[in-house]
Design brief:
The protein is of the alpha+beta class. Helices cover 27% and strands 36% of the residues. The protein has two helices and five strands; from the N terminus they run E-E-E-E-H-E-H. Strands 1-2-3-4-5 form a five-stranded mixed beta sheet. The termini are far apart.
Length: 91
């Protein structure tokens, strides 16, 4: 799967060009990314799509030197639980 950047979203495409899932976010100023929604499309559950999307958001935040505020319940739970995201998680 390949991670793609859209307008206010990251999404994963399969080799066949099907969208597997997406994260909808909003940039708040120059310092913060707000994760509003994480969605795994039907047929792609259990394949790690959500975590791949979160990894992409974390990489984006690190590159842009921003923090992430997850209001999406999935993103919030995963990011708070896993230390690999704590450097970009808004405190």
């Amino acid at each position: 799967m390949e991670l793609k950047q859209g307008e206010d979203r990251l999404y994963l495409l399969t080799e066949e060009g099907m969208e597997a899932g997406e994260i909808i976010y909003e940039a708040l100023g120059n310092e913060l990314l707000l994760i509003k929604h994480t969605y795994t499309h039907d047929g792609f559950q259990g394949q790690g799509v959500g975590k791949k999307l979160l990894n992409g958001m974390a990489a984006k935040a690190r590159t842009e030197e921003k923090k992430i505020r997850p209001i999406c319940e999935f993103a919030k739970a995963v990011m708070e639980k896993n230390e690999i995201y704590h450097d970009v998680l808004e405190k």
